[in-house]
Write a structure and sequence with these properties.
3 helices, elongated, 77% helix, 95 residues, mainly alpha
Length: 95
Amino acid sequence: MGNTKPSRRPYAAKWIASTAQTIHNSTMTLKNAATLALIGMLLLTVLLALDFFNSLMGVTRGLIPTMAILRSLIYLFASLTVTMFFYVFNRAQSR
């Protein structure tokens, strides 16, 4: 119980640092991440546009309350806003 210092391995930190740079940083760049986020948001925006259209048809047929259009419109607007942000961000990364 006299010595409570943990044992040190000087070579372990060098090995972890050297592999972390080559594995994690070479495949995913900021441009790739922005493109992937843009594709995901485009798919989500299409789904929310279809949901808005479905809600609109439901209200005109009298199947669902009118407030469903407001909810769908807010979701669609938020999705379009984030999609436009990722589009502009993606364009800025290519320069």
